[in-house]
């Protein structure tokens, strides 16, 4: 009798653990699919789909888009994204809703293993239990894909996961998002998306030498790109952008000022371009009205036009750049990005502009803007001194002002691009 009671209790516990995430509840599943899109899950969790299966292209309609295996570059080494299809051997098929929420909210796997913040639980901790359950319900509807992913690829000593206990004590603030009652519902929705599911700070907040966050959304180097500031700073952030310009950029991947490329192109293509207009507007409202006032960064003095590096840079720009970006740096609206007054090219770090010059870049393609203009690579025809010169010229012309780029900066970027993970 006691044995039957115990078995019944365990069965009831298992039902309670999964009851909130019901793959047969189509309203919940549809909401979970949308929330997974808002969280841009597919961009990281795509990858190889098992032996004999070609590399998967991120696709919201395909389970292979969630089969894991993509290598994510961090300052401490590469981490491969997990398989989050409901495969019972290599995915999350044996997980309960409670265990999924623990991973999202606390950063721990069902066996208690600590996750690395390459999985942005530091942002996902803001996600509500209902939303976590909805995402889990959606993932359970995917076809299981057997794809064993090596989750321990960091070198010693970073492969010691117990060290995450100390890291979490220093840098992780657990807690579900709490609305600000002094703000509008729209503002709070934007805050929830930016700080939670959107995990914008994971890229756009600078990191210290231990990988902890610095000034929130102030921009920083990431995977050989420089994620620009998203603060209300007018020169470096989005303070000079209108809400409509932010919405257009997130919906189409471009506006009159800029075009999304690199990791941001993936964010647009697989996430924000598929979100509702009201959610994009809420994000814009939140970014334009930050919770705390932003100290406007003082601009450095631009280099003089007769500076030797500026003269060299101008000659290179006139020969290879102005046909698209124009002599005035205004570019072609929604086609070739404006360089004059560009927040991106004036960031403290020159990584993005160096990468674009050396390797080229391709803008995002979306339903609203299906043609993705591309910039050719110039690394094959320009030496490091010339690359640094044209980057410096762009960063200090048409009213722009930013630190000069050195030949050594260009050399380091060229070397790094030989091994960078896409």
Task: Walk me through what this model shows.
By secondary structure, the protein is mainly alpha-helical. It folds into three domains: 20-171, no CATH class; 185-288, Cytochrome Bc1 Complex, Chain D, domain 2, CATH 1.10.760; 308-417, Orthogonal Bundle (Cytochrome Bc1 Complex, Chain D, domain 2). The protein is 40% helix and 4% strand. It has helices spanning 2-19, 26-38, 41-45, 97-106, 121-124, 129-140, 163-171, 185-197, 201-204, 243-252, 263-270, 277-288, 308-320, 322-325, 351-359, 384-395, 407-417; strands at 71-74, 77-80, 220-222, 225-227, 361-362, 374-375. A hairpin with a 2-residue loop joins strand 1 (71-74) and strand 2 (77-80). It is globular. The chain starts with a helix and ends in a 5-residue tail after the last helix. Mean pLDDT is 88; it is low at 1-19 and 49-57.
Secondary-structure-based class equals mainly alpha
The tally of structural domains comes to 3
Main sheet specs: 2 strands, antiparallel
Count of runs of 4 or more consecutive helical residues: 17
Tell me how many strands there are. 6
Distance between the termini: 59 Å
Helical proportion, percent range:
25-40%
User: Which value, in Å, is the CA radius of gyration?
Assistant: 23 Å
What's the helix-strand series?
A: HHHEEHHHHHHEEHHHHHHEEHH
- How does the overall form come out from the CA principal axes? globular
Cofactor: heme c
Signal peptide: 1-21
Domain Cytochrome c: 27-143, 185-291, 308-398
InterPro entries: Cyt_c-like_dom, Cyt_c-like_dom_sf, Cyt_C_IC, Cytochrome_c-type_DH, Membr-bd_ADH_cyt_c
């Amino acid at each position: 009798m006691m044995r039957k009671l115990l078995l019944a209790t365990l069965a009831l516990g298992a039902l309670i653990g999964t009851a909130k995430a019901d793959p047969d509840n189509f309203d919940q599943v549809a909401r979970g699919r949308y929330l997974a899109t808002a969280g841009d899950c597919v961009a990281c969790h795509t990858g190889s789909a098992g032996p004999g299966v070609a590399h998967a292209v991120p696709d919201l309609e395909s389970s292979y888009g969630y089969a894991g295996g993509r290598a994510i570059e961090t300052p401490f080494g590469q981490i491969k994204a997990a398989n989050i299809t409901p495969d019972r051997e290599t995915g999350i098929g044996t997980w309960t809703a409670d265990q999924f929420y623990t991973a999202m909210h606390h950063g721990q796997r069902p066996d208690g293993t600590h996750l690395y913040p390459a999985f942005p639980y530091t942002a996902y901790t803001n996600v509500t239990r209902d939303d976590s359950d909805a995402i889990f319900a959606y993932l359970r509807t995917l076809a299981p894909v057997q794809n064993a992913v090596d989750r321990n690829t960091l070198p010693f000593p970073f492969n010691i996961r117990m060290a995450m206990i100390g890291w979490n004590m220093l840098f992780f603030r657990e807690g579900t998002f709490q609305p600000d009652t002094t703000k509008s519902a729209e503002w709070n929705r934007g805050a929830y998306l930016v700080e939670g599911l959107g995990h914008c700070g994971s890229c756009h907040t600078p990191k210290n030498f231990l990988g902890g966050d610095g000034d929130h959304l102030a921009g920083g180097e990431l995977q050989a790109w420089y994620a620009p500031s998203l603060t209300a700073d007018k020169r470096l952030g989005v303070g000079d952008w209108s809400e409509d310009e932010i919405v257009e950029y997130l919906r189409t991947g471009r506006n009159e000022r800029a075009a999304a490329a690199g990791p941001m192109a993936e964010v647009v293509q697989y996430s924000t371009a598929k979100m509702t207009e009201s959610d994009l507007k809420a994000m814009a409202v939140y970014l334009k009205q930050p919770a705390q006032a932003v100290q406007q960064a003082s601009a450095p003095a631009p280099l003089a036009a007769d500076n030797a590096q500026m003269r060299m840079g101008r000659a290179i720009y006139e020969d290879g750049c102005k046909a698209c970006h124009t002599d005035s740096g205004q570019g072609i609206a929604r086609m070739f990005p404006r360089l004059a007054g560009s927040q991106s090219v004036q960031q403290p770090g020159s990584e993005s502009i160096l990468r674009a010059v050396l390797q080229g870049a391709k803008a995002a393609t979306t339903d609203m803007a299906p043609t993705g203009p591309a910039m050719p690579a110039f690394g094959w025809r320009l030496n490091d001194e010339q690359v640094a010169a044209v980057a410096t010229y762009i960063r200090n012309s048409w009213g722009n002002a930013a630190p000069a780029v050195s030949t050594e900066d260009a050399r380091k970027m060229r070397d790094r691009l030989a091994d960078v993970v896409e």
